[in-house]
Amino acid sequence: MRTPFVFIDGDQGTTGLQIHERLRGRADIRLLTLPAAERKNAQRRAEAINACDIAILCLPDAAAREAVQSIVNPAVRVIDASSAHRTQADWVYGFPEMSAAQAARIAQASRVSNPGCYPTGAIGLLLPLVQAGLLPASYPVSVHAVSGYSGRGRAGVEAHEGGGDSPAPAFQVYGLELAHKHAPEIALHAGLAARPLFVPAYGAYRQGIVLTVPLALRLLPPGVDAAALQACLARHYAQARDVQVLSLDEAKALTQLDPQRLNGTNAMQLSVFHNEAQGQVLLAAIFDNLGKGASGAAVQNLDLMLAA
């Protein structure tokens, strides 16, 4: 049986470098990359993408669209790590744990859109609750998240590690125009009726995300409490290798959330915190923005496609 060729287009960015590192040395694939002198050569990139079995695009959105348009070989399959195709109906969303059938859809797909880093946590928390009717689709959802500076890509890494004259801020909230590109992705794939209020931030550490969603129990259906929310998440992810749902007792024992705790893995930890007397619940997700939030997810999707 022929060893499949996997081409990484854009392997010098943070996501591409991590994917390359995760795939290097594997005997079940032949990894293709372009030399530095040819990375901006449109003809060579088109030749490479049409010669591979699976292409992984680690490019800006416009370049990702151009790369897909250059494909003339119908046998080429694509995993796009950009946000160019995440809300398009003809692309399969690359979050295997979102439903019982999603992994099979990814395995058979010719076009897979890798989820965004923040949406991975938000959708992971919200979708099971919306599907179960515990969280109304019309709920006014707010998502607050802090990522390591690598979430900005090479510019973020350079700002913090490049040794420039002006030190990068220790903490910065951004997306203040409330029009972040992740909001439509979260709304669509979490089954929300409207865009969530999404407030992202960067911290002065390299990688890792902590994402939280506050809920008011008075706005949920009668009888829905923290135990019901946690039980729903636990059932949904009971067979998921890479998603762990803490029990209410395990969550209660925590006094803080460390966004770097799962760095270097493809794992995601979900928690439900609550204050029943105040009628408040906090949903939380921890994961590596370069792992389950990017390169780890891409490799997970690649493995599903290779096994098909």
Automatic annotation (TrEMBL):
<feature type="active site">
    <location>
        <position position="117"/>
    </location>
</feature>
<protein>
    <recommendedName>
        <fullName>N-acetyl-gamma-glutamyl-phosphate reductase</fullName>
        <ecNumber>1.2.1.38</ecNumber>
    </recommendedName>
</protein>
<dbReference type="InterPro" id="IPR000534">
    <property type="entry name" value="Semialdehyde_DH_NAD-bd"/>
</dbReference>
<comment type="pathway">
    <text>Amino-acid biosynthesis; L-arginine biosynthesis; N(2)-acetyl-L-ornithine from L-glutamate: step 3/4.</text>
</comment>
<keyword id="KW-0028">Amino-acid biosynthesis</keyword>
<dbReference type="InterPro" id="IPR050085">
    <property type="entry name" value="AGPR"/>
</dbReference>
<keyword id="KW-0055">Arginine biosynthesis</keyword>
<dbReference type="InterPro" id="IPR058924">
    <property type="entry name" value="AGPR_dimerisation_dom"/>
</dbReference>
<keyword id="KW-0560">Oxidoreductase</keyword>
<dbReference type="InterPro" id="IPR023013">
    <property type="entry name" value="AGPR_AS"/>
</dbReference>
<dbReference type="InterPro" id="IPR036291">
    <property type="entry name" value="NAD(P)-bd_dom_sf"/>
</dbReference>
<dbReference type="Pfam" id="PF22698">
    <property type="entry name" value="Semialdhyde_dhC_1"/>
</dbReference>
<feature type="domain" description="Semialdehyde dehydrogenase NAD-binding">
    <location>
        <begin position="5"/>
        <end position="106"/>
    </location>
</feature>
<dbReference type="GO" id="GO:0003942">
    <property type="term" value="F:N-acetyl-gamma-glutamyl-phosphate reductase activity"/>
</dbReference>
<dbReference type="InterPro" id="IPR010136">
    <property type="entry name" value="AGPR_type-2"/>
</dbReference>
<comment type="similarity">
    <text>Belongs to the NAGSA dehydrogenase family. Type 2 subfamily.</text>
</comment>
<dbReference type="GO" id="GO:0005737">
    <property type="term" value="C:cytoplasm"/>
</dbReference>
<keyword id="KW-0963">Cytoplasm</keyword>
<keyword id="KW-0521">NADP</keyword>
<dbReference type="GO" id="GO:0006526">
    <property type="term" value="P:L-arginine biosynthetic process"/>
</dbReference>
<dbReference type="Pfam" id="PF01118">
    <property type="entry name" value="Semialdhyde_dh"/>
</dbReference>
<dbReference type="GO" id="GO:0051287">
    <property type="term" value="F:NAD binding"/>
</dbReference>
<comment type="function">
    <text>Catalyzes the NADPH-dependent reduction of N-acetyl-5-glutamyl phosphate to yield N-acetyl-L-glutamate 5-semialdehyde.</text>
</comment>
